[in-house]
Amino acid sequence: MSLIVISGYPCAGKSQRATQIKHSLEQRLADPAYTGPSLTVTVLSDDTLNIPRSAYDDSRSEKPARAALFSAFQRYLGNDRIVIVDALNYIKGFRYQMYCATREAKVRVCTVYVIAPPEQCRTWNTSREDGRSYAPDTLDNLIQRYEEPSSMVRWDSPLFTVPWTDADVPADDIWRAITQGLVKPPNTGTQAVAKAPTDALHTLESTTTALVSAIVAAQSASSLPGGTLSLDVPTSTSTSAPSTPPVKLTLTLPPRHLTLSELGRLKRQFITMHKRAITLGSTEMGKVDWSEESVAHKFVEYLEENVGLSS
């Protein structure tokens, strides 16, 4: 149903804020006055995923750590769950990646920015006795590389800032954001584009070749050049099962015969035009049916529209 992204310096108190948010949300969900859907609150963090602090010592180990966090976040994201991602989330590109996933899943999202001075973070880091402290150089490097959230960008908003001196989080505002905030629909930048079937290119090539052969045969059998040709185009189904009839089409041509070279040129142009939709899953040509019958009909339409231009 929603995602809460917690961001801040290492050892800024993010886990404490995540615990406060989780406790507040669970209290509200258990309140008899609450009449909304049944929801579970889940906190994802380096600790819950067993990611050591040493993973941030260099980029080679940090990338798989972020990938593990993102994979876990995607698994838990759903309509029956509130996910709190309690991690550094210090790279704006990573926060944007999570934002795109929430738009695709059509769930609400907000960001909680936990603020603490660098010196305070260093003090808390050195005082830890649970084995979860950062190496001093790693801590300084992460603080230096930190990219602050901004309410001016869509992937960080709504943004709630929590200074280290505050006793609690803005629970009411967070609750409203994740239960009443706008659910932004997916757009072309966040939607997964459906790919064409794996045999689409083969279907495109074989169907247009069969149609060219059928046109040449129909022209040879006709006593008059051009006009309306009746075509029987065999498909792979009709070839393997003789009881299956071929595709029947009609093609209207100008009063002349089309040469084999002209048909070959138009066929290559048609295939090139559709290759992008096959290889890249492009939606610029709309929804495409890659069946043999559909390709045959589209090729006939293409010929009728372009045969005069190629003469």
Report on the architecture of this protein.
It contains ten helices and seven strands. The protein folds into two domains: 179 residues, Rossmann fold (3-Layer(aba) Sandwich); 111 residues, no CATH class. With 311 residues, it is α/β, with parallel strands linked by helices. Helix 4 packs antiparallel against helix 5 and helix 7 crosses helix 10. It holds the Pfam family KTI12. This is Chromatin associated protein KTI12.
Short recap of the structure:
The protein has 311 residues and is α/β, with parallel strands linked by helices. The protein has helices at 14-30, 59-76, 92-105, 118-126, 136-145, 171-180, 200-221, 236-240, 260-280, 292-310; strands at residues 2-8, 40-45, 81-86, 108-115, 159-163, 227-233, 247-253.
Number of domains: 2
CATH class of the largest domain: Alpha Beta
SSE series? EHEHEHEHHEHHEHEHH
> What is the average of the pLDDT values?
86
The main pleated sheet reads as: 5 strands, parallel
